[in-house]
Write a structure and sequence with these properties.
The chain has 239 residues and is α+β, with helices and mostly antiparallel strands. It has helices spanning 32-43, 77-80, 105-113, 136-142, 152-156, 158-162, 169-179, 187-194, 208-212, 219-235; strands at residues 5-13, 17-25, 62-65, 68-71, 85-89, 96-98, 101-102. The chain folds into 2 domains: 5-102, Roll (Ubiquitin-like (UB roll)); 105-235, Orthogonal Bundle (Fumarate Reductase Iron-sulfur Protein, Chain B, domain 2), CATH 1.10.1060. The protein has 10 helices and 7 strands. Helix 7 packs antiparallel against helix 8. The chain is elongated. The model has no long low-confidence stretch (mean pLDDT 94).
């Protein structure tokens, strides 16, 4: 009995390219990453794509599947195929290096612009800093701290598509976790960085980032928090 086949259209080329059609055998519990791997290993070894852990921990396999940014290792074909057909493209809002591989440099550069690095508030002490888990600041930081930088929210963001200078949901979510870290001493520079024209106030609160985040985070809520903190700092004359 002949295997049932999936019709898979895959983006080939760089920013200028085209969709190429492949036929892949359908398998039980098959993921989209399994499909891409089959194509690269069995049909066309020149296909370029990224993956690492295969279990939803690294985020490197993120691609656009039927128009929606997803982790392909955690996306089962049976959930997304339409009439046994799938379309796979690279992440949106990022330059394509080749095929399904995008240049993540601008994405992480925006983390730097948002001052998304920990700045110790004091000289190192002999004991670890004690941060009560139930404190308001700790709970606010916890709500966004599990981001792994996969770029799904960035690729799903309408504002990034309209304004390439916009810092984006991941960088602003990272800034919010640090604003709420009582050990951090970099908030003055951080708030100035995120309160500019390309920062938190540019967010239109469409919540595409929250809808698509594979970790079920809510960057829109983090950005709203930054807006409140930045407004208070402005009223106090600190910005």
């Amino acid at each position: 009995m002949r295997d049932q086949l999936l019709r898979v259209s895959v983006w080939r080329g760089a920013d200028e390219g085209r969709l190429v059609a492949y036929e892949v055998p359908a398998r039980p519990s098959q993921t989209v990453l399994d499909v891409v791997t089959y194509i690269q290993r069995r049909l066309d070894p020149s296909l370029a794509y990224r993956f690492a852990c295969r279990v939803g921990m690294c985020g490197s396999c993120a691609m656009t599947v039927n128009g929606i940014a997803r982790w392909t290792c955690r996306t089962h074909v049976e959930r997304v195929a339409k009439n046994s057909a799938i379309e796979i493209r690279p992440l949106a809002n990022l330059q394509v290096i080749r095929d399904l591989v995008t240049d993540m440099t601008p994405f992480f550069e925006k983390w730097r612009r948002a001052e998304g690095r920990f700045v110790p508030a004091t000289t190192p002490a002999r004991d670890f800093a004690k941060v009560p888990p139930a404190s308001r600041e700790r709970r606010a930081a916890d709500a966004g701290i599990e981001c792994i930088g996969c770029g799904v929210c960035y690729a799903s963001c309408d504002v990034v598509a309209w304004d390439p200078d916009y810092l984006g949901p991941a960088a602003l979510n990272r800034a919010w976790t640090l604003v709420n870290d009582v050990r951090d001493g970099g908030n003055s520079d951080r708030l100035r960085a995120v309160a500019g024209d390309a920062g938190c106030h540019a967010c239109h609160s469409h919540q595409s980032c929250a809808l698509r985040c594979p970790k079920a985070l809510d960057p829109t809520a983090s950005i709203a928090g930054l807006k409140r903190v930045a407004a208070r700092a402005t009223l106090r004359g600190e910005l």
